[in-house]
Give the backbone structure.
Amino acid sequence: MYICVKLQLKANIEVENELKQYERHFKEEINRITEIFRQRGHSFELRYKEISNHISYNSKHLVLAQAKQKYAAEVKKEKYSAPFSSVWSNSSYQLKEHSVVLELGLYRHRNMLELPCYINEQQRKRLQSGPHTNMKLICHRGKWSALIYVQIIFKPNGEKATMGIDIGLKVPAVAALDSGEIRFFGNGRQIRFQQRKYQSHIEAMLRHHQKKKIYHFQHKLHHVLSDFDHKTAKQIIDYAIEKHVGVIKMENLMSINKKYEKSKSKSLHHWSYRRLQDYIEYKAFIAGIRVVYINPYNTSRTCPQCGKINHPKDRFYCCICGFRGHRDAVAAMNILHAL
């Protein structure tokens, strides 16, 4: 598994000019190689000496890879976009305590550029958790950032306890342990309030054709909801570590949107269940907890006591055997005991 660590760079005018110049060489070389592929009618390998020496030697294969991607997108008549300024291999940059050193060009074009950056304790911990791979430079609204990809190697924590997690709309997550403990995570009402708040602003802007503000608000809504999911996932993993959990079970919900029409389930299509599951999965991976996905069929309808299938109409589940419980807690218990 790979995780991405984003570092904010402090670039003055001179450094920024050098980065923009390298970006221009990088993208011009991608376009030049793509044109060669277009003339030949297929993509192929190029020798390093055929690629411009303005590009760092150890990053030339990344230019070739981007040119292949662009040509493949053109063949399929798809749109190609590179949201990054340039890509660097792990041999073309060096990460120091408070700076990133970049290797620009080759031979007479070679230059070492040091960029000061701020690294907090969490980022430093992530950077030290595994070997570094490629790095991408991006420039957004005049601010430069470095995206460093770190390879994480799974190391099982050796614990024996199991946890079942049900992901929902009204209750973001419910966890059930094999010891019988049940715990609820997140605030579904707060999330829905934020969705309605920003969605109403976006709809008003659509009526007034304020396209730039719509773009800003859509990103702001995404960041707010993503922050909720990050915090919920952290609470779940901290709880799992506290309870010595070695395996987490969740439902495979990838095909849930196909079962409903968009007009009948607007809230379902705004549901970020996969994002929350991804956050739980990667945080569990770092903590040495294995994640298993199970079939979600009838998990919230099956009685965990007698196995009878009921159809609850409210948030609380009742069975003729006498079992009573919250519907999401019942689902978490069934996920826990699913094979």
Remarks:
- Residues 6 and 323 are 49 Å apart (CA to CA).
- The mean pLDDT is 87.
- The first helix runs from residue 13 to 40.
- Helices lie at 13-40, 60-75, 121-127, 188-207, 211-242, 266-269, 273-287, 327-337.
